[in-house]
Design brief:
Elements lengths: L14 H19 L6 E5 L5 H6 L5 E6 L2 H8 L7 E5 L11 E7 L8 H11 E12 L13 H7 L5 E8 L13 E8 L1
Parallel strand pairs: 1-2, 1-4, 2-3, 4-5
Antiparallel strand pairs: 5-7, 6-7
Length: 192
Amino acid sequence: MRMSSENIIPRWNIMPKHMPSFTTHLEQYVYASNYVMRKDVLDIGSGEGYGPQILSYGANKIDVIDKSPRSLMRAKAKNYYCPVEFHEMDLEEQFLLGSWDVIVALQILEHLNDPETVVELCRTYLREGGILIFGLPHMMPAEDHKRLYKAKDVLNLFKDFSDIDLHIHDRKIISRDQHYRGIKSYVGIAYK
């Protein structure tokens, strides 16, 4: 089974290689959890469900989108602390109809051929005053990354929002694997 760093099953025999990306992903969900208290949330590209599980501690309701039936099956097996609905769909082909206070898009946009359209759909389906919480890797080549992002690219991606907070998450990692030295990612909020 091929595994990307954002979609893994934490078993100790495979975890060390993916640990830096996995922990970064979880940290971004903890960051997002600060903004979902009593909110209706859409989480796109949720993978195995670890992120929505974190968000469920405060959210009112969560809709989860992922294109992988296997990931959704694993996500459904987790315990959540608010109502959660699961939707199997490919964001490149369709988008869930509805409206949300918060949309979470962590480590997903770099996997899309047309992230601009997905970001615009997110803006459209956010309620007035809603926020899009995003996370993107900084210039991290990977087999399944369709785009690489610098800060100016991230700002341009969210240019149609009324405001944006952008943070650089920088990690100093000691590793023999060149891929994980100095992992940097962007995390932020785009305001409707």
